[in-house]
Amino acid sequence: MAVTDKSVLYQHGTLSLLVPGLFEGTMTIGELLQHGNSGIGTVQDFNGEMVILDGHAYQVVETGEVHELTAEQSVPFATVHFDDPKVTTHETKLTKADVEQKLLTDYPYKNVFYAVKIRGIFSHMLTRVVQKQEKPYPNLTESTKTQPKFKQENVEGTLIGYYAPELFQGVAVAGYHVHFLSNDHSIGGHVLDYTLAEGDVSIQPFASLQQHFPLEDPAFLKEDFNYAGMSTSINKAEK
Ligand SMILES: [Zn+2]
């Protein structure tokens, strides 16, 4: 029985397990969606960027194409929640930096995880998509050396992702980590930059973080993580 607690942020795997290249899928989409109907992540073999909206998990692959993932496909890392925004405001003409600063200024949530969702028209959207890797998997720095980028102007869609306090760098990406999917699926991926022309900006703070680990994955269990270089590797690949 799924627990639909809207105050819980559920995460499978940690961002840090991607750093040494642990890209094996360790949770199915079917199971993941029991823990949330919205979110972000990546797919088995680091095969693209995942965007979960309204209970559907979409995969944006390196060619830019968007596929809906099936219940049997699996993910090494994903963060999900049940959509229930606490505040939604209608905004116009905001850059990425404007939005990020505004949310931290307008709400008292800098020390907690919160979801950010923006539905609207973006006058500029720039995304990137990671490329599918093959075993033996290279590390995150190697895997993200070349990343296809996608750009569109005046595109309507949904931006979704999370803010994590600095303390959680490694568990997640400290600061903002957001993905995008256009309504017509013509562009999506990990968001590098955008300007919001007009849209609804929502936030949803979480009282709890539920961190789930891939207990059945021998590679994860025996990995000796290099924590000293981890933060740099994460920022290089994910910011
Ligand atoms: Zn991402």
Overall average residue pLDDT? 96
User: Briefly, what CATH class?
Assistant: Alpha Beta
Major sheet summary line: 7 strands, mixed
Beta strands, count: 15
Question: Can you name the CATH architecture?
Answer: 2-Layer Sandwich
Helix content: 10-25%
Structural class, please? alpha+beta
Counting H and I runs of at least 4 residues, what is the number of helices?
5
CATH superfamily: Hypothetical protein, similar to alpha- acetolactate decarboxylase, domain 2
Q: What is the radius of gyration?
A: 17 Å
Hetero groups = zinc ion
Number of domains: 1
Give the amount of beta strand, in percent.
Answer: 35-45%
Which consecutive residue ranges, at least 5 long each, have pLDDT under 50?
none
* Distance linking N and C termini: 36 Å
Principal-axes geometry comes out as globular
Q: Major sheet: order of its strands?
A: 6-5-4-3-8-1-15
Note the run of SSEs as H and E.
EEHEEEEEEEHEHEEEEEHH
CATH topology: 60s Ribosomal Protein L30, Chain: A
What does this structure look like?
This is Alpha-acetolactate decarboxylase. It holds the Pfam family AAL_decarboxy. InterPro entries: Acetolactate_a_deCO2ase (IPR005128). GO terms for molecular function: acetolactate decarboxylase activity. This protein has 239 residues and is an alpha+beta fold. It has one domain: Hypothetical protein, similar to alpha- acetolactate decarboxylase, domain 2 (60s Ribosomal Protein L30, Chain: A, 2-Layer Sandwich). The protein is 15% helix and 42% strand. The strands form three sheets. The protein has a seven-stranded mixed beta sheet with strand order 6-5-4-3-8-1-15, with no helix packed on it. Strands 9, 10, 11, 12, 13 and 14 form a six-stranded antiparallel beta sheet that branches. The longest helix has 12 residues, at 227-238. The protein is globular. The structure holds zinc ion (ZN). Zinc ion (ZN) binds next to β13. Zinc ion (ZN) binds at residues 49, 177, 179, 190.
